[in-house]
Amino acid sequence: MRTKQERRMDEQGQPIAELHAQEITCPHCGRYVGPLPRCPHCGARQPQRLSLRVLRLAALLLAAVGLCLLWRMAINREIPLIKISGIQPPMNFALVRVAGKATGDARTFREAGKIRSLRFSINDGTGDLVINAYGKSAEQMALFDRIPRADDAVEVAGSLTVGADENVSLRLQSGEALKLKRAEKAMLPVAHVTNVVEGAEVLITGAVTRVVAPRPGSRAPYVVTVRDASEERQLVIWSSVFEKITNHDRLVPGAAVRAQVTAEVCKGKMQLKLGRAVDLEVLPAAPVITNVLPEAAKP
């Protein structure tokens, strides 16, 4: 057992109390300095303890390394993919990914001519989930033609909102957090359009036989008549859509086109409407109809 006196002595035999006194007093004036780098009384610079310097440098280095590791983890962390049926109340505000098929066309909400928000639902086989996009996220989706339609394959990432009434929705993190794969539509002969359910989207192909442009100042749409081997049908294209069609100057009689259109009833007759410019393609030659639907198409 060491005596109390021995415990107060360092390895060189100098009392520890005296060492502490030397570390906290100025060697020039002998007054109390503490941890200050310069004596507040005489202004003399104080020798820093080596252990304190090392501790400070080690703390700074450790903090920098920790921040770098946290940053890398944050940017490389994969957002978990979950099933809709597995969403529970404790998951409120959780950042997740969900994949499924759109159950219908997205609803857009506009203000001053701009899309301010949109909403659509997806189903992954275990349940339905409402997806909301606001502000810049909705604008990005519209700008890059990534607004979902019925049967499109969708994968989204965002934060969950689980209400007290168990209503669950997901707020899209950004427009880039949505992955979209368009549903492939079966080619349909023009003659079968009369059997299509109103609101269904179909894919047609044929040759343009006539183009009727609206009069200057008129709000009437363009009317393009398309004929294939079975029949001809009028395709309605509003001016705002027609102007965005790539190479719309080539949309003249004799041109071969392929278009994904929506069937609508107007004045008791079934007609076709082009909803988006990217859904019409002017082909270099008339294509061969494949994957024909022999019966009424379903929405």
Looking at CATH, which topology of the largest domain would you report? OB fold (Dihydrolipoamide Acetyltransferase, E2P)
Which shape, going by the Cα principal axes?
A: elongated
What is the distance, rounded to the nearest whole angstrom, between the alpha carbons of the first and last residues?
A: 92 Å
- The CATH superfamily of the largest domain is Nucleic acid-binding proteins
Oligomer: single chain
Question: How many separate structural domains?
Answer: 3
Radius of gyration: 36 Å
In short:
The protein has five helices and 13 strands. With about 300 residues, the chain is of the alpha+beta class. Strands 1-3-4-6-5 form a five-stranded mixed β-barrel. A five-stranded mixed beta barrel has the order 8-9-10-12-11.
Characterization of the model:
- A hairpin with a 2-residue loop joins strand 11 and strand 12 (269-273).
- The protein has a 5-stranded mixed beta barrel with strand order 1-3-4-6-5.
- It folds into 3 domains: 16-74, no CATH class; 84-181, Nucleic acid-binding proteins (OB fold (Dihydrolipoamide Acetyltransferase, E2P)), CATH 2.40.50; 190-283, OB fold (Dihydrolipoamide Acetyltransferase, E2P) (Beta Barrel).
- The model is unreliable at 1-17 and 287-299 (pLDDT under 50).
- It has helices at 4-7, 16-24, 50-76, 135-143, 239-242; strands at residues 95-102, 107-111, 114-123, 128-134, 153-162, 168-172, 178-181, 201-212, 222-227, 232-237, 256-266, 269-273, 280-283.
- It is built from 5 helices and 13 strands.
- The protein is elongated, with a radius of gyration of 36 Å.
- The chain starts with a helix and ends in a 16-residue tail after the last strand.
- It is an alpha+beta fold and 299 residues long.
